Amino acid sequence: MTWKQIKWRLRYYLQYFPFTINTLICAAAAYVAYRLLYQPLGKDEVSPFRPFILLMGKMVFWFAIGLVAVSVLSTIVSWVYYLWLRKQKHYQLQVAFTTETMRNGKKRLYMDAQLEGVRRPILGFIKGRLFYDDHEMTDKFSLLSNKRKERSWWRAAITGRSKLNLPDIKEYELRGGFVYFEDMLHLFSLSAAQPVGGQFYQPPLLAEEDDRDVFPKKTETMDIRIDQLRRVEGEYHNYKDFESGDDVRRIVWKVYA
Known about the structure:
The protein has one domain. Helices cover 30% and strands 26% of the residues. The protein is built from 4 helices and 10 strands. The strands form 2 sheets. Strands 3, 4, 5, 8, 9 and 10 form a 6-stranded antiparallel beta sheet that branches. A 4-stranded antiparallel beta sheet has the order 1-2-7-6, with no helix packed on it.
């Protein structure tokens, strides 16, 4: 097994890792806030407002902790419920690819994703990701829209639409995908593998032309005209009405000789 294959497999199996960088950051922030709020007051503390400020800070701190805890618990419940749906009813991620032509003639590749029966976490998110070719993966896309049942207010599925920007103009083959259940602060990312298959084609994109503003060269001196009418005497020339039978050479000779 080559190093490239090992790296691809490592990236694939890391999708099952539930913690994110936000877990470390928020844990450190919560620890610092806890130490500041529950630090014992000194004996020489004379500020009458500090106990009140600390009390308000503790209320906000525990309210935020409770809100995040509710979001995390609902994320776990939604994830477990979807695992049951996948096993019992075989609900899985469905994707469709469409190519649209913009007004400027450029073609864009869009992906429409749909997941049936799932319940979105409280203040949380559901996202997806696809693997194609040799374990190359797309960016995460969100499933933010709701698809209602016909003549009903109940939600039948959640959907999402995203634009794909792939490096090569060719036909790609899907190798699978993942669905992620995340809380409001993205502390946890609980994944579920998806047996997605099929092919899609990346169309050629027109190169963007540089729109440059061209300014004409301005004259260094500006002509100033006086908006005033005045009469100027001109020269009198020897004009004559010639007839149609006159010789042109004679006419020119008399006028310009």
